[in-house]
Amino acid sequence: MKLQCPKCGxxxxxxxxxxELEQAETHDIAAKLGTHWRIANEYIxxxxxxxxGTVSLKKRLRKLKEVAELFDxxxxxxxxxxxxxxxxxxxxxxxxxxxMNKIRITTHGYLYSILxxxxxxxxxxxxxAKEESEREFSRQSQGRTQSEPGRFDFKRIANNLxxxxxxxDKSGVPPILGGNSTxxxxxx
Length: 188
Known about the structure:
By secondary structure, this protein is mostly helical.
C-alpha cells in the first residue's frame, strides 16, 4: 500500500513506515538497556527457529520490551509466584543461556528457572520474607499481631479510657449500642 506525504508529496509504503517505527523503538530500548544491550540482544537470538535463522524485527521488538521490563522492575512471575532479583543475576542467567547455544525457545521459562534459584520470593504485597518479618516485628512492637490485624482488645481499650464496655460475642464484634448481644431489638 503506497501512501503520499501531505507536505512534500513523496510516496512511500506503509510497511516501510512501520519498519522504521519498529527500528526507532528498538533503538530506544537499546539506549534504555545501556550496557546490558548486547547480552539482551544475544539472548533474543535464542528465539531463532534454526541455527542460522533470524528473529523477525517484530518478534525481536516484542521480546526486547519484555526483557527491558524485567530489567526495569527486577521482578518476574513463575508458576504464579513472584520473585525479585537484581541486574547482575539477570545478566548471568542470560549469559548462561547464550553460552549453551539454546535455540527455539518459546517462553522466558528457562531464563526464569535459572533466576528462581537465586531470586527472593515475594509475598502478595511484593515483600520478601525478610521484609515481611521486619514488618511483623514492627507490628508486634506496636501491640498488634499479624494473625489478628483487625481485632482489638476491647477490655484493654475500655480500661485505658475508664469506661465500661461490654465484651464482644464469639465473632469478635462488639454489641450494637442500644441493642442486645445478638443485635435483635428487645420486645416491649
